[in-house]
Amino acid sequence: MHEFKIPAINGNEFRCRFSSGVPEIPVHYMRGGTSTGVVIWEPLVPDDEALRAELLRHIMGVPSSGHISGNRQLTGLGRGPATSNKVFLARIEKAPTGDRIISTLAQLASDHGEIDWSVNCGNMSSALSLWSIDTGMIAASAVGAFDIEIQNTNTGVLTVSRMSREENGKFSVAEIPGVLGAFPSVDLFLQSPVGNKTGTLLPTGAVVDVIAGHEVSCVDVAVPMVIASAASFGKTGHEPMAELESDTEFMARLRHVWVEAGLKMKLCRRDGKLMTRAEIERSETIPKVCIVGSPRDGGHVAVRYFTPQTGHASMAVSGGCCLAAACLLPGSTASRVAVGVKTLKTEYCDIQVSIENPAGKLDTIVTARSAADHIEIKAAAYRRSTQILMRGHVPLYQASSELIRALKELS
Known about the structure:
- By secondary structure, the protein is α+β, with helices and mostly antiparallel strands.
- The chain has helices at residues 49-60, 122-125, 128-134, 241-246, 248-264, 277-281, 317-327, 333-337, 401-410; strands at 8-9, 12-13, 17-19, 22-32, 35-41, 86-95, 98-107, 144-152, 158-165, 173-174, 183-191, 209-211, 214-221, 223-229, 288-293, 301-306, 349-357, 360-371, 374-395.
- The chain folds into two domains: 8-193 and 387-410, Diaminopimelate Epimerase, Chain A, domain 1, CATH 3.10.310; 209-371, Roll (Diaminopimelate Epimerase, Chain A, domain 1).
- It is built from nine helices and 19 strands.
- Helix 1 (49-60) links the parallel strand 5 and strand 6 (86-95).
- The protein starts with 7 loop residues before the first strand and ends with a helix.
C-alpha cells in the first residue's frame, strides 16, 4: 500500500474513483515534443507488475494478449505508431537539490500487449515538468527560468528540465519541427548520458563495424543506436520517409543490419539478461537505427531515423543526442558525412549540432572534450515544446476483479 498525500487540481482530489462499478483513473493526456502519451501519478498504480501492465493496456487500447495486426486502438488513448503509445508513471521525491520527478516509461505497441520498460523517451520527458506544475506537486517560479530534475528509472539518466514564465505568468514558448505552432518551451539537459544501456560509448568496442557489407557505428549516448551510411544502401538521407518504408528491399536490409548490430552490442533486458535475437526483432525501442548523409539545408548532418520498427516523421531527441555525439567521434559513420561541426578541445566545451530531418532541423548541444585517443561527454541538451491535450479520468470498463480490488485499496 502506498503512503502519500493526495494532491488536488482545482479543488478536485487526484485519485481513482468509481462510477457505476467501473474504476476510473486520473490521467494527463499530453504531447511532449513530437510524441503523445499519458502521464499517471505512480501512487495510483498497483505495485504488482501484472496488474500494472493490465491497467496500461486498458488505458492505451492494446491487446491483452496475442497479436492483432492493424489494431486501431479505438478503445484507448494510443494512436498507432510507437511515438503515440507512451505512458509515463511519475512521482515526486525529495533530493538534495529540491523536489525531483521520478519517471518510469512504459512503451506500448498497437498490435500486441507486450510492454517495453527498457528505455526512456526524450520527447515525452519534456511533458513531465508541465505535468508536475499542473498537478501542483511542484511549485514553479512565478517569473523567470526554473529548473526541475527528472530521474528516469528505466535508464538511470538524470535530466534537468528548464522552463520559464513571462511577466504575465504565461510559460515562454517555442516552435519545433514537426509541431504546428508555439507551445510551452522546455530545454532538457541530459547529465552523464554515455552508456546508460550498455555501460560504454562504443558497445561493440569499435568506432565502425561492417555488418552484412554495411559500415555502421554503434553508439550509446542517451539511447543505443545503430548509425549507418545512407550511401551504403544507395540512399542520400534526404528521401521522404514514405519512400523509404515502401522500399521493401531497403527495409529488409536495414532490418537485418539493425538486428545483427543489436546482438553485437550485447543489449540487455530489464532483468540484466542478454536480449535474444527474437527479442531484438520485435523490440519497439532498442537499438534505434538511422541512415545518415551530408546536409543540404544549413544543418550539420542529415538523417532518416527509425524507432526501430517504423520510420520516424522527424527525429527523436534521444536519438538526436546520440547522433550529435557520433558527429564528434572521429572516424564514425556520422562524422564522415557531417559538415561544419566544430572540433573538440581538451577542455569541456559546448558543441552545437543541427540535424536535418523530414520535419526540419533538430538543434542539439553536446558538452564534451577530447582526451588522448577518445572523447568524453558530460551532457547533451535539446529544446522541445509541450502541452496538455486533456486531463481527466479514464474508465477501465474491462478491468479484472484483481485490478478493481487493487485500485480500491489505493483509492
